[in-house]
Amino acid sequence: MNKYTGKTFQFPSPAKLNLFLHVVGQRKDGYHELETLFQFLNYSDNIEISVTEGTEITLLTPIEGVKNDDNLIVKAARLLQEKICLINTNPLVVMGAQIRVNKILPMGGGLGGGSSNAATILVALNLLWQSDFSTEKLAELGLSLGADVPIFIHGFSAFAQGVGEQLTPATPKEYWYLVSKPQISIATASVFSSPDLPRDTPQLTSDNFNQYYRDEYLFDNHKYHNDCQTMVIKHYDEVANLLAWLVEYAPSRMTGTGACVFSRFSSEKEAIELQKKLPNGIYSFVAQGQNKSPLISVVKIIENRQNESNNWLN
Ligand SMILES: C[C@@](CO)(OP(=O)(O)O)[C@H](O)COP(=O)(O)OP(=O)(O)OC[C@H]1O[C@@H](n2ccc(N)nc2=O)[C@H](O)[C@@H]1O
Ligand SMILES: Nc1ncnc2c1ncn2[C@@H]1O[C@H](COP(=O)(O)OP(=O)(O)O)[C@@H](O)[C@H]1O
Fold first, then answer.
1. Domain 176-290 - what CATH class?
2. What does CATH list as the number for 8-170+295-313?
């Protein structure tokens, strides 16, 4: 009997920022080699999962414009099922789920919402279906769904290399951010296929990063920048204009391939003050950087609670 069957649980699926994003080369298969500094935000989608018997995966809250079969939530759940079936032939194994997602993260914003949803599903169902795969194995599975999935599975801020899967833990200061976005979304593939994307930023390497990174140097564009921003501001006036406006008030940069940009503050109050001044038609929220993903603590709490109630029954 699976101890979680018939029960419902809530899991956070946080946003990430790329505090900087350097394109340092391109692989033979076309994928770009990156060096980036990831930090989570305390701003998350919420995913509710009810564990059911059998193998049915039902997403009760479809996302507009994304077919359920293409939704990274469903794809991640099916991928985990496939891997469980390879090691377990017991037909009574519990691998069903009814899933609801409350999405607050904008899509195509560079906040990694889709990858984060996939990671939350892999980590949560690994617990609830009791499949017991290691974090490394889940990250390996996740990488086949998207380059950003491993960071959300590991759940610590990191300097990342490769396509974003080689992680060195990092602890950038947990500043407050105003995240804002013009009413456009930018497809990751269109940025990486552009001839205007700089692809030759010299590599930092993890040793150099560890030795020389300081939060106060982050917005010194000679040291750290976002190469995708160079391409995006050339092609999207909306982002160029928003960034030009923001930098008059606070250090600001684009995250990932955009279209969200973040502005850094020492306090929540200062971030909210600038939010009030934003030009009309700009989507925005204020959140704090977090070096630990809230997903990992929620998983620990559920595990501990369940163990305590089992001990009490025994
Ligand atoms: C750029 C980053 C930085 O964190 O974030 P986003 O802005 O998308 O959130 C990520 O590396 C994005 O990762 P992810 O969103 O998973 O990208 P994928 O779906 O794997 O890739 C979409 C397409 O972009 C191109 N691509 C992606 C990543 C990469 N390192 N090189 C590439 O050339 C490939 O053509 C790929 O088919
Ligand atoms: N659960 C999901 N949440 C968000 N986007 C998803 C999801 N499943 C599939 N997608 C697709 O992934 C694309 C990228 O979304 P997202 O990860 O939010 O943006 P970004 O990669 O810019 O941070 C979306 O435009 C959408 O087509």
1. alpha beta
2. 3.30.230.10
